[in-house]
Design brief:
mainly alpha, DUF2274, 56% helix
Length: 71
C-alpha cells in the first residue's frame, strides 16, 4: 500500500458513561440548555450538550495539557 498523507483514523466508537449530578449541577445544566436554545434557536438535550462542554473544557485547560506532555 502506498504511503498516505492521512494517518489511520483513531477509534471513534462512542463510549457510554453514567454519572450522578448534584441538584445544583443538574439545575445549572438545564439552565445552560435553556441559554443554548436562546442563543442558537435550537433545543439540545443536556446529554447531547455534555460531551461538547467537556471537550471544550479539556481543550482549554493549559495545565492539563502541560502535564500530559511531560514523560
Amino acid at each position: 500500500m502506498a504511503d498516505l498523507k492521512l494517518p489511520k483514523l483513531p477509534e471513534r466508537t462512542p463510549k457510554r458513561i453514567t454519572f450522578n449530578a448534584m441538584p445544583g449541577l443538574f439545575e445549572a445544566l438545564n439552565a445552560y440548555a435553556d441559554a443554548y436554545e436562546a442563543a442558537y434557536g435550537r433545543r439540545e438535550s443536556v446529554p447531547d450538550l455534555i460531551p461538547a462542554m467537556l471537550t471544550a473544557f479539556i481543550e482549554t485547560d493549559r495545565r492539563f495539557h502541560r502535564g500530559r506532555r511531560k514523560p
